[in-house]
């Protein structure tokens, strides 16, 4: 694994999107929509975001041996993502997300996890060991960077749309290779026991659920105390809250004309991982990530609006 690499351990989905004037209430049918199909899955979206931000990206995940899986891998490869570590599983469908988007860009999402739920911890551990090539120190801590400059070490980016065993194996494998670890705990569920040095990137709702605190700042401080590492809480159009040691900072998001917020959180995580892998200071990487997320909302679908590195720099 090169020192500028990002390895994403996460989900790969097909997104089936219906755009309507307004989101339906429970039991309600809203007619007159339009349909589109996109590549999705939070892990795959984050891999694309990191690749467009300039990182060399490898995806570790699982898809079914079906048409959705074939297309998902072709789309990732076309973005420059290495998909050689994505398992093809017989008898299991590729994950699917059905997404309803309204005229304001807000959305409702339902997911059938499919092959993502079958990603085994052993498969993740083996893939990370192959990427590390056995040349990195074993058992090293994954100490997170502070606001100052950080060495370029490579990043392992993890998410909650795969089983806990896969996430835990990813953390162990990253530590064994002396890589930074970023965990996007979405959707919110019980966190792994050992999170020392792991950078968490929840949104405000996830932070509340994970920390048991109502206010984002209190939730971020509680999570940071648990990990001993920075926490970045995303706040949608209000930007983000970065807690790093005793310091706390609000990071604005550039104002844009929003078309679709689907994938904005994935843009944050992929761009953040790419910048950290390139050795950027955490605060600078987080500012870059928030700009990338804002720009990503200007087009429909989770990936179509994800910006290239130079586009983000121009927006800062």
Question: How would you describe the overall organization of this protein?
Answer:
This protein has helices at residues 42-52, 67-78, 121-132, 164-176, 204-211, 216-227, 264-277, 282-296, 309-315, and strands at residues 5-9, 13-19, 34-40, 56-64, 82-89, 95-101, 107-112, 155-159, 180-184, 199-200, 231-234, 240-244, 247-251. The strands form three sheets. It has a six-stranded parallel β-sheet, with helices on both faces. Strands 3-2-6-7 form a four-stranded mixed β-sheet. The chain has one domain: Ribokinase (UDP-N-acetylmuramoyl-L-alanine:D-glutamate ligase). The chain is globular and about 50 Å long. By secondary structure, it is of the alpha/beta class. Strand 12 and strand 13 (247-251) form a beta hairpin. Helix 1 (42-52) packs across helix 7 and helix 8 (282-296) crosses helix 9.
Write the layout of secondary structure elements.
Layout: E1 5-9, E2 13-19, E3 34-40, H1 42-52, E4 56-64, H2 67-78, E5 82-89, E6 95-101, E7 107-112, H3 121-132, E8 155-159, H4 164-176, E9 180-184, E10 199-200, H5 204-211, H6 216-227, E11 231-234, E12 240-244, E13 247-251, H7 264-277, H8 282-296, H9 309-315
Parallel strand pairs: 1-4, 1-8, 2-6, 4-5, 8-9, 9-10
Antiparallel strand pairs: 2-3, 6-7, 11-12, 12-13
